[in-house]
Amino acid sequence: MIQNYLILSVILFCIGILGVVSRRNVLIVFMSIELMLNAANLAFIAFSRFHESMDGHVLALMVMAVAAAEAALALAVVILLHKHKGKLDTDVFSLLKG
Amino acid sequence: MEHTVSYLGLIPLFPLLGALILGVMHISTCTGKPFSEKLYGVLGCIGPVISFIYALIVYFQLKGMPADSRFLIHDAFTWFSVGDLHITMGFLADPLSSLMLVFVTFIGSLIHIYSVGYMSGDENFGKFFSYMNLFLGSMLILVLGSGPVVMFVGWEGVGLCSYLLISFYCKDTDNVLAGNKAFIVNRIGDLGFVLGMAFLFWAIGASGFDYLSLRENSHLLTPGIGLVVCLLLFVGACGKSAQIPLYVWLPDAMAGPTPVSALIHAATMVTAGVYMVARFSFIYAHVPVAGAVVAWIGILTALLAAIFGMFQHDIKKILAYSTVSQLGYMFAGVGVAAYSAGIFHVFTHAFFKALLFLGAGSVIYALHHQQNIWKMGGLKEKMPKTYWSMLIGALALAGFPPFSGFFSKDEILFSALASGHTGIWFIGVAVAGITAYYTFRLIFVVFHGQPRDKKAFDHAEDAPAVMTIPLMVLAFGALCAGFLNLPGIFGGNLNVSHWLAPSLVEHHPHTSLTVELLAMALTIAIIVTGIVIAYKKFASGAEEPEYTGFAKFAYNKFYVDELYNTVFVQPYKAIGSVIWKSLEPNVTDIHVKVSSWLYRKAGTGFKIFQVGYVRVYAVYMVIGLSIISLLLSQSLN
Amino acid sequence: MFQYVLSVMIFMPLLAGLFVLAAPISKGIARLAGFIVTGIILLLGIELFLGFSGSAGMEYVESRVWIESLGVNYSLGVDGISLLVLFTCALLFPLIFVVFSTRTKGFYANLLICQGAMIGAICATDLVLFYIFWEIMLLPIFFMIGLYGGPGRLAATLKITLYTIAGSLLMLAALVYVGVAYHTQFGEWSFNIVQLAKLNLSGGYAVLAFVMFMLAFAIKIPLFPFHTWLPDAYTEAPTSTTFVLSAIMAKIGVYAVIRFVIPVFEIEFARFAILLSLAGVVGMMYCGLAAIAQKDIKRMLAFSSASHMGVIALGVFCMNVQALTGSLFQIVAHATSTGVLFLFVGLMEEKMQTRNITDLGGIAYRAPIFATFFAIAMLASVGLPGTSGFIGEFLIILGAVKFNAFIGILSGTTLIIGVCYMLWMFQRVFFEKPKELTEKFTDLNMTEVLTFLPVILLIIFMGIFPQPFLKKIEPAAQKHIAEFSTVAPTVIVDTTVPSEGLNHQKN
């Protein structure tokens, strides 16, 4: 039973990774990251249920809190990026090219 | 202890104090109004004179002691002491050093007095006397030092003063260069001295590193080490006493004021090397090979310098080469283990050479710093006092009997012959002839014949009394000093040699009276021939000859200076530039260069991964994470 | 109270430096504060020097447990080996505050921090504590060169910092190795130098650790061929920093070799002694020759300093009591003579805005006092008897001859090499005809005369009466050599020539 939950979690996580790697729109990248976080949350809850321990819940709640904080910051960054270049394309921001 | 006296250390202290006081006075008034010359003169002369009086006291006190234990010591304080090495700032007066002491202070005082006249009007009058006092103090430390290290203090001190006084007129680059040359060449010698001391110390110095202890332990010295020590010390002597190959600095040293040439570069400092070899006679006497090296170097230097002296035109250069040549004689003397003869020649030479230099100084002074003998002539009438005293000096230098030089030089030549060094004796006799020739060439050209420079001639006159009186005193010395050591065949009994005997390790060889007389006659004949040739060529006014062939070669001193310049000086500078311009940045710094190059290359290498797109970095993360997960799962199973 | 004198001497300048850095005060007050603090340190240093009994062991010992689990202690002490280095460090700092006025507040703060760290490094008897001070010492140097140096300061400061840090990090690794080795052999942790000296190290790792330690110190000394940071750093640094670098920091490198390397790595040290002493001699000759090609008088002095450091290091590597004592003495002698020469060059630069030898000339006429002082310091630097330089050089050469006749003879050439470039420089700067720039050169004023006179007198005093100094350092040197010889008696190289005479004497 737990396998099903975990497989779902892995699928969600992989969709997240694919989104981060292949999409160039900052907002979509951001949403993909949220997807990955929630994939992890799903795994936590599943394990928590499986082991009949509340630790997983605690961690899941913790991740949600972090995700919320991150979302606040990230959206601010996104707005600034948009102000700066007028676009939300990640490939535009390649100043770190060696 | 009856041998301990507390005033020996004061003897060098007086001139040193004088130097300090004069130096401070000079410096503090350098930019303002200077003190009067009279004050400087009195203060400058007072130290040497007091030292001279003390020297006499020392001499008479020694004379009052039994002959086999004639020495006075004064250990002022422990200078430094590390492990087995104990160096006391001590002073030792024995017959050898007392003889040196007396004549150094005597001639030093005379030359100080002379300088009051000679240097008058010079803006650096105070500085001059400060340096001269410093020199005399150092020289007295050299003479009185109770061990080699204390002697080395004086040794380097006189070198410093020599440098300072040669470059006294320091606006002129040539003078400073001459000073540098003197200091550096002396330093090469000093290296030998220091290393000689080091070897000597490790061999026999542990139970006391002063002359008395060293002499006691000298039999412990193995011949090998003995030879090394002797030769190294002789390198030091070569530097200070201007012997082959380190003689080149002395002729250049004539750039200094003439009293300096007289005091430092003729009478006292340059004989320090001879004194040192005599001081270490207890080592040299055991190593005949080293003695032979010393004697041969000495006599060859005598020959070489005499040849150079024949063709010079600068009055001081002629005298300088004659000094080098006479120093060669002295080394020949101490080399054949006739230490007392060598020291006696030091003694007489100090008188007549100081006399000649001061006389030359008077001439130069009268002719307003003209030093070329071919611009002089006929000065006999104008400067009779100078002429007569210089003539005495010349006769003494030429070794004409009964002047002082005759006795001392003959003693050396005879010792060489008697100890079986026939070659040295033969060259020595020949050099005596050459010496007579070039000395009288100088006298005849300068004082006889017609004046060659009318204008200068008209203004020439004898110097003031403050300068001529020292001349006369020295002339008296040059005339009579020889009688102090009258050999047996003239009814004397070698007083000076006997006086020196306790300080030295020597044995007097004996030959038949006939040989001695024949050799002496031959020498005198050669000397007279030399004088006669000079008279024929120069007495009635010769003009400066055009030198060609060998004469030109000798006039240019065999191009030895140029040779040294190309072989040592220029390569030295070139090596410096090569190190700085090529070696340092390209070779020595290579490890730094290589590491920074590696960093840079590595940076460029890794640059291709830095594409700048966020998604590519995300891919890297995914790959890294995958690898780590894979490894983790592997290790968990 | 005097029992904590070392802590006071370390932390007073450190804290004063931090205070000056942070407090809103003018640079004049900063200078005054610096002068007062260093002046107090000087007084404490003199008092400490006079109070030092001259025993072979540690005095003024302080010890507190610091990191108990690792056996690291805050332990300080002074013995004959560190005494003169400490004395030099206390003696020379006040000069900087008197002589140089055109510096900012931050510069003075850095100087103070530097002094504190240096005294810490000199007094620490715990290897970890030493390492910490050793690293702190570099920071102010980095800022002083990087912020206040000449036109090429950035490259110079990066080079010296990276170079020395590279060495220090190697030392850190070796330090850990030594600590672990001690733990393995004795079952407890300790970094105290007395404890570490009991270590019995051998094998490849010991050699590696020895090399790492030596490398750190060789860079600092600097020993040929690791001296290449020196000409740039000494030239680009502000003169007072050059003074600190050459007079004190280089000496701490030598001191550290004696203090930390020799007791711990006796066998390795004895094995490499010939190689190291060759490095010293070759460095002496190499830098001395390079000095003659310099047009910048400061760079010339930099090379001269490196050349003399080669001789000082050689004295340490010879491992006999004369050479070691000579080195320790020469540390002060060289610091005073060369240090003062650097300060003089700084003065000349302030007055004439040039250090180029060819632009100068005839200063002796314009400034006789200055010329005299300069000449005395120069003569001390070339080792003229009667000045402090002679005693040290003579002892080192004497010891070197015993150690190895060939190296002894080579080391003697320092007498000649030094004189060549110094005299030539002196000729062109002080003699000859005055030039345009030197015409307006003014002599030392009263304050400057009074500042330099004590140092000049000290140079002469130490040449004539070296015994008060030698007496205090010799027992410690004796002990050091004795401990060394008991552990490594077989490997000490002796020349055949002098020992022939020695054996003869014993019979």
Structural summary, described in words:
The complex is a heterotrimer of chains A (98), B (637) and C (507). By secondary structure, chain A is mainly alpha-helical. Chain A has a single domain, classed as Helix Hairpins (Orthogonal Bundle). Chain A is built from three helices and no strands. In chain A, helix 2 runs antiparallel to helix 3. Among the domains of chain B are: 205 residues, no CATH class; 75 residues, no CATH class. Chain B has 27 helices and two strands. In chain B, strand 1 and strand 2 form a beta hairpin. The longest helix of chain B is centred in the first third of the chain and has 33 residues. The model of chain B has no long low-confidence stretch (mean pLDDT 88). In chain C, 76% of the residues lie in helices and 3% in strands. Chain C has 22 helices and two strands. A two-stranded antiparallel sheet of chain C has the order 1-2. In chain C, a hairpin with a 4-residue loop joins strand 1 and strand 2. The longest helix of chain C has 34 residues. Chains in contact: A-B, B-C. The interface between A and B is medium-sized, with 15 and 13 residues.
Number of domains of chain A: 1
Largest sheet features of chain C: 2 strands, antiparallel
Radius of gyration of chain C: 22 Å
Query: What structural class do the secondary elements of chain C suggest?
Result: mainly alpha
Query: How many beta strands in the DSSP annotation of chain A?
Result: 0
Summed up, the helix count of chain A is 3
Q: Show unreliable segments of chain C.
A: 490-507
Helix/strand class of chain A: mainly alpha
**Beginning-to-end CA distance, first to last residue of chain C:** 55 Å
Which percent range fits the helix content of chain A? Answer: over 70%
Question: What does this entry show, briefly?
Answer:
The complex is a heterotrimer of chains A (98), B (637) and C (507). In chain B, strands 1-2 form a two-stranded antiparallel sheet.
What does the secondary structure layout of this molecule look like, with pairings?
The complex is a heterotrimer of chains A (98), B (637) and C (507).
Chain A: H1 2-22, H2 26-51, H3 55-85
Chain B: H1 10-28, H2 37-63, E1 72-82, E2 85-93, H3 95-118, H4 125-144, H5 148-166, H6 173-205, H7 211-217, H8 223-240, H9 249-252, H10 258-267, H11 272-279, H12 281-284, H13 288-309, H14 315-335, H15 339-366, H16 379-382, H17 384-398, H18 404-418, H19 422-447, H20 454-459, H21 465-480, H22 495-500, H23 513-538, H24 549-555, H25 560-588, H26 590-607, H27 614-636
Antiparallel strand pairs in B: 1-2
Chain C: H1 5-22, H2 27-51, E1 59-67, E2 72-78, H3 80-99, H4 105-123, H5 127-148, H6 153-186, H7 193-196, H8 204-220, H9 229-236, H10 239-264, H11 266-292, H12 297-317, H13 321-352, H14 363-366, H15 368-381, H16 388-403, H17 405-412, H18 414-430, H19 436-439, H20 446-464, H21 467-487, H22 496-506
Antiparallel strand pairs in C: 1-2
Helix pairs in contact in C: 1-2, 1-4, 2-3, 2-4, 3-4, 3-10, 3-13, 3-21, 4-5, 4-10, 5-6, 5-10, 6-8, 6-9, 8-10, 9-10, 9-12, 10-12, 10-13, 11-12, 11-18, 12-13, 12-16, 12-18, 13-15, 13-16, 13-20, 13-21, 15-18, 15-20, 16-17, 16-20
